[in-house]
């Protein structure tokens, strides 16, 4: 795996922005991070605030090409929802899957969120091993 492949040509400026975001994660991002960091889900490594091309995604597992996004209230606004859809489409063009959870889902039922992530990871692992 090359660094370029993992970051899809992200700029040095984006790496600096990602570092700042890691240092200032939202409450809900921190809740989810505590559950997925340190290979807790099927031994998979997730990276927080990871640069990909021109974007910084909340969490990324390179082995599965999986992005997990945590959406606050602003993601319900029309302009933000359209931006999110365009961004997800561009990530899909790289072969990256995107799953989104609202702050409310994370706060009210983190275990259900983790189960959904775990199940998706298992399905993606099966797909990888069958190739």
Structure, explained:
With 131 residues, the chain is an alpha+beta fold. The chain has one domain (3-130): 3-Layer(aba) Sandwich (Endonuclease, Chain A), CATH 3.40.960.10. 53% of the residues lie in helices and 19% in strands. The chain is built from 6 helices and 4 strands, in the order H-H-H-E-E-E-H-E-H-H. The chain has helices at residues 3-7, 12-23, 27-36, 78-93, 103-108, 110-130; strands spanning 47-52, 55-61, 66-71, 97-102. A hairpin with a 2-residue loop joins strand 1 and strand 2. The longest helix is centred in the C-terminal third of the chain and has 21 residues, at 110-130. The protein is globular. Residues 16-119 form the DUF559 domain. Pfam families: DUF559. This is DUF559 domain-containing protein.
Main attributes of the structure:
alpha+beta; Endonuclease, Chain A; 6 helices; 4 strands; Endonuclease_DUF559_bact; DUF559 domain-containing protein; Restrct_endonuc-II-like; DUF559
Which architecture per CATH?
Answer: 3-Layer(aba) Sandwich
Give me the secondary-structure category. Answer: alpha+beta
Q: What is the CATH homologous superfamily assignment? A: VSR Endonuclease
Number of domains: 1
CATH topology: Endonuclease, Chain A
Distance between the termini: 18 Å
Q: How large, in whole angstroms, is the Cα Rg? A: 14 Å
> Can you count the helices?
6
Beta-strand portion reads 15-25%
Spell out the helices and strands N to C.
HHHEEEHEHH
The largest sheet is:
4 strands, mixed
> pLDDT under 50 segments (min length 5)?
none
Kindly state the number of beta strands. Answer: 4
